[in-house]
């Protein structure tokens, strides 16, 4: 059965608040959601925790593919 957003790709660049939750809902509606975050940034460390991982972080990133990217400007990489 197809979903309303099948074939739509969404890049989730959100960090906190309702952004990750909205992207999760888009994934539940069939969108291909790619969550991008910097590797130097720790995932949300918001209780409650289970085995050292925030349950909120795992829940908010359900239905997403996750990717770590370090974003630096050209000026920063020349220094």
Structure description:
With 79 residues, this protein is of the alpha/beta class. It has 3 helices and 5 strands. It is globular and about 35 Å long. It has a 3-stranded parallel β-sheet, with helices on one face. It starts with 8 loop residues before the first strand and ends with a helix. The mean pLDDT is 81. The chain has helices at 18-28, 55-60, 74-78, and strands at residues 9-12, 32-37, 49-50, 53-54, 64-68.
Q: Provide a count of the helices.
A: 3
Low-confidence stretches: none
Strand order across the largest sheet = 1-2-5
Helical residue percent? 25-40%
For the sheet with most strands, the description reads: 3 strands, parallel
Strand content: 15-25%
The count of DSSP E runs of length 2 or more, i.e. the number of strands, is 5
The H/E string reads: EHEEEHEH
Distance between the termini: 52 Å
Overall mean confidence score, pLDDT: 81
Based on CA atoms alone, the radius of gyration comes out at 15 Å
Secondary-structure class: alpha/beta
Outline type: globular
What's a quick, concise take on this entry?
This protein has helices at 18-28, 55-60, 74-78; strands at 9-12, 32-37, 49-50, 53-54, 64-68. It has 79 residues and is of the alpha/beta class.
């Amino acid at each position: 059965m197809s979903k309303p957003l099948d074939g739509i790709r969404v890049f989730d660049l959100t960090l906190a608040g309702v952004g990750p939750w909205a992207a999760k809902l888009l994934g539940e509606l069939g969108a291909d959601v790619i969550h991008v975050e910097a590797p130097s940034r720790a995932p949300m460390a918001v209780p409650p925790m289970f085995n050292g991982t925030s349950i909120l972080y795992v829940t908010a990133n359900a239905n997403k593919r996750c990717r770590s990217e370090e974003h630096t400007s050209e000026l920063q990489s020349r220094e």
